[in-house]
Amino acid sequence: MSEYTLVRRGLLSAVATDTSPVQATIAAVKTGSSFRIATIKENRRRTKIQQVSQAITDASVSPLDVTISAVDTVKTKVTITFKEKRTNDNRGVTAKLQSSTAVRLTFDTVAAGDTIDVEILVEENVDYRGATVRLVDATTVEMSWDGGALLTGETITATYEVFDVEDMGDDLKEILFRLTRLLGYAGENVRQDLLSYDDPGNMIMYRLRVFDTRANAEASTPDLPDGEDLETGELARVRMTQEILASQNDRTGMIRVLTDVADNEEVG
């Protein structure tokens, strides 16, 4: 029978700054007969936020572009708060997303010594993002996700189980093979030949030949000499020897010896 571990278990995790994919090494499996089960837990924000401060003075020229990290302009909005110290009649400042990397501030002339302190909030909505776990090769499990590197506070964890059913299938085939032989020992699809008797006529030796089907048992060659190859469907040969106490016509012992057994061709 096979010796194997049916399942390989483990944990994959990703934290801030990790980029996709991350991998784990497992004991080798056969990829053609293996499958994986994974449970994934994500802690990821649906919104990316940038906060930028900008000081505007009398030296600043409107419009003023403030650099931000790249965003998807379709999914991003900009809001501002500001505090101004101005001595002329000009008031206020406006903001818009000028490009994927710039917020444009517009304002009227700032008098000498005046200031506007602007706080810019950039909010980018992020599409729903998931993670997947797959068996890359015989020894590698991989977790991947979209959206680039994880942000501060974001995590992804996945517990996985990789099952390799080939060895288990071989064991089932081996069990069926041995069960057929056991049924033969019990008298199913068997030829009994090469019988020997003592002088009183007691059977003291014979051979038991086990077959996989009735048809193969009936088609087999009676009294085939020992040492000849197993015939079609023949699974095993057992030599039976009995000891008879002639004075009491009683069997005092029996020995069964397995002399030949077929290879299980169903098991690779």
Please tell me about this protein's structure.
The structure is a single chain. With 268 residues, the protein is mostly beta strands. It has 3 domains: 73 residues, no CATH class; 79 residues, Immunoglobulin-like (Sandwich); 83 residues, no CATH class. It is built from 2 helices and 16 strands. It has a 4-stranded antiparallel beta sheet with strand order 13-14-15-16. A hairpin with a 4-residue loop joins β15 and β16. The longest helix is centred in the middle third of the chain and has 20 residues.
Q: For the terminal residues, how far apart are their CA atoms? A: 12 Å
Give the integer mean of the pLDDT values: 91
**What value does the Rg take, in angstroms?**
41 Å
Counted by DSSP, the helix tally is: 2
Instruction: Give the helix/strand class.
Output: mainly beta
Number of strands: 16
- Morphology: rod-shaped
Order of helices and strands: EEEEEEEEEEEEHEEHEE
The largest sheet, given as strand count, sense and whether it forms a barrel, is: 4 strands, antiparallel
Number of domains: 3
How much of the sequence lies in strands comes to: over 45%
Strand order of the largest sheet: 13-14-15-16
**Helical content (DSSP H or I, runs of 4+):** under 10%
The stretches of 5 or more residues where confidence is low (pLDDT under 50) are none
